[in-house]
Specification:
GO terms for molecular function: agmatine deiminase activity; protein-arginine deiminase activity. It catalyses: agmatine + H2O = N-carbamoylputrescine + NH4(+). By secondary structure, the chain is of the alpha/beta class. It contains 10 helices and 18 strands.
Length: about 375
Amino acid sequence: MTHTSNTPHMNVTPAELGFAMPAEFSPHSACWMLWPQRPDTWRYGAKPAQQAFVEVATAIAESETVYVGVNDEQYENARNQLPAHVRVVELSSNDAWMRDVGPTFVTHPDGRLAMVDWEFNAWGGLKGGLYFPWDKDRRIRTKIAEILGIPRFEAPVVLEGGAIHVDGDGTLITTEECLLNPNRNPDLSRQRMENVLHDYLGVEKVIWLPRGCHLDETDGHIDNLCCFVAPGEVALNWCDDEHDPQHAISREALEVLENATDARGRALKVHKLPQPGPLHIAEEEASGIDRLSSSHPRQPGDRMAASYANFYIGNSVVVMPLLDPTHDDQAKATLQDLFPDRRVIGVPAREILLGGGNIHCITQQQPLCVASPGMSRPE
């Protein structure tokens, strides 16, 4: 029988059982999101951010089922704002970054679905973390496993979903700045981290980029810098201005990528996405945010880590952030060329960026599970 207990597997890893993480461009059965309401992250009681989240959820819902988890006190408001076909579920959280606090789903060739439950410490714990406490966020994966009735594998490391990208063909890309950061796993070597990624995601090769985007408060999440768009192909946040700190970061990433091969021995093809901006927090944008000692400060003039690489790949759509009229059309055209069979939808996303992330950060895909030919699914 298929095991659906929410009791975590302690002595066996997903890879040992044949599970692996599929690529984001593989078919989904759903997308999971959370509802913004935290006043020290989102300005003016999160009302502008809520509108942006509604637009993202509506766009993705053209492509697949969307679940939005909501704290009880915001349930009625969210239900009234979101389209009827978006499913609203009570799912308490400390903030709205489902990519990082939600499950990393893995699939089995026989059609089974499971999840990896990473440790979470709010992007650094008490050494640079973005808020405290994070107790509700820590329970989200357990609750989703219960809702779906799927196995949950507890991983022995701190890791956020935005820190990894896979091609579904054995390759994972990440940054040293994040996964090897002392505020995540101070005693973990690079080789041990690779072993964990192999054991829990079924990957065979890890490509390490040195750093993430300039001033990214997540300590260098890969999903803001670079992502797989197809096997052997990546999109990279690119900056031409040699005086911009992002230029050196993008250049060193390009050098690593151009000299790397994936798990199947393919050289990587790199597609450059123009960097928006640079974009900074305006006075009126900062003034609407609650200032608490337990949360990350957001001051007027602060530069934001804006990137068009922070998009979501749905079944039939690609939902990208609109951030800068100077570069929006170019970025959209590039993504449309990369995804000719999907419709690229641009969503005004500055309100999400003001909170510290973007569209990929607030979404988490649930893969569609289909048994491989010749395999029968257990009853």
